[in-house]
From TrEMBL:
Encoding gene per record: INSIG2
Similarity annotation: Belongs to the INSIG family.
PANTHER family per record: INSULIN-INDUCED GENE 1, INSULIN-INDUCED GENE 2 PROTEIN
Job description of the protein: Mediates feedback control of cholesterol synthesis.
Native organism: Panthera pardus (Leopard)
Key words of the record: Cholesterol metabolism, Endoplasmic reticulum, Lipid metabolism, Lipid-binding, Membrane, Steroid metabolism, Sterol metabolism, Transmembrane, Transmembrane helix
Protein name: Insulin-induced gene protein
Predominant cellular place of this UniProt entry's protein: endoplasmic reticulum
InterPro entries associated with the record: INSIG_fam
Subunit structure: Interacts with SCAP; interaction is direct and only takes place in the presence of sterols; it prevents interaction between SCAP and the coat protein complex II (COPII). Associates with the SCAP-SREBP complex (composed of SCAP and SREBF1/SREBP1 or SREBF2/SREBP2); association is mediated via its interaction with SCAP and only takes place in the presence of sterols. Interacts with RNF139. Interacts with RNF145.
GO CC, one annotated term: SREBP-SCAP-Insig complex
Any one GO molecular-function label of the UniProt entry: lipid binding
UniProt subcellular location: Endoplasmic reticulum membrane
TM region positions: 28-49, 69-88, 131-148, 155-174, 186-206
Length: 220
């Protein structure tokens, strides 16, 4: 009587739930890295514009880094960009309101171009006073939201980002990390929240587009 052969157990296969979690984690990590480097690049370019126009002043001992920018600015902006870019699609998903307005890369690139233009205007365009400049940049920032976003969640997150980023900047300037020339809103310029608002909308659009494309690839 032939004895039954016992098959040696092969490698255990991961269940569908574990595979789903792993795919989602890899998806988030890739998007976070991409958003981080986009934020670093934009920080280097935009901060260079501000320094060239003497809007921001760093101590002499921190000017020697790349693009005449303090070394900690790009990593901080990159980290903030990654958080914002991942937060926007997450909020959309939890609210059950997937953002589908102008969901193509050409629209995202135009949004980035408008944001760079707004930042450039804050450093280059001369107004009679800061109030006129602040109102103009506020109108341009809201126009950017209306043109490329139009979601309530996007507007609310943009306002929250502008408030928190301005508060952090006030604390940094207060502690002498760097300074603004001619501050008119406590320790910073009054138009700074407009720049942060526009930046939040821009990184949110990039994050949403990356999330949509990664969903097409990964299915999560």
């Amino acid at each position: 009587m032939a004895e039954g052969k016992t098959e040696s157990p092969g490698p255990k296969k991961r269940g569908p739930y574990i595979s789903s979690i792993t795919s989602r984690s890899v998806n988030l990590m890739i998007r976070g890295v991409v958003l981080f480097f986009i934020g670093v690049f934009l920080a280097l370019v935009l901060n260079l514009l501000q320094i060239q126009r003497n809007v921001t002043l760093f101590p002499p001992d921190v000017i020697a880094s790349i693009f005449s920018s303090a070394w900690w600015v790009p990593p901080c902006c990159g980290t903030a960009s990654a958080v914002i870019g991942l937060l926007y699609p997450c909020i959309d998903r939890h609210l059950g309101e997937p953002h589908k307005f102008k969901r193509e890369w050409s629209s995202v690139m135009r949004c980035v171009a408008v944001f760079v233009g707004i930042n450039h205007a804050s450093a280059k365009v001369d107004f009679d006073n800061n109030i006129q400049l602040s109102l103009t940049l506020a109108a341009l920032s809201i126009g950017l939201w209306w043109t490329f976003d139009r979601s309530r969640s996007g507007f609310g997150l943009g306002v929250g980002i502008a408030f928190l980023a301005t508060l952090v900047t006030q604390l940094l300037v207060y502690n002498g990390v760097y300074q603004y020339t001619s501050p008119d809103f406590l320790y910073v310029r009054s138009w700074l929240p407009c720049i942060f608002f526009a930046g939040g909308i821009t990184m949110g659009n990039i994050g949403r587009q990356l999330a949509m494309k990664s969903t097409d690839i990964w299915g999560h």
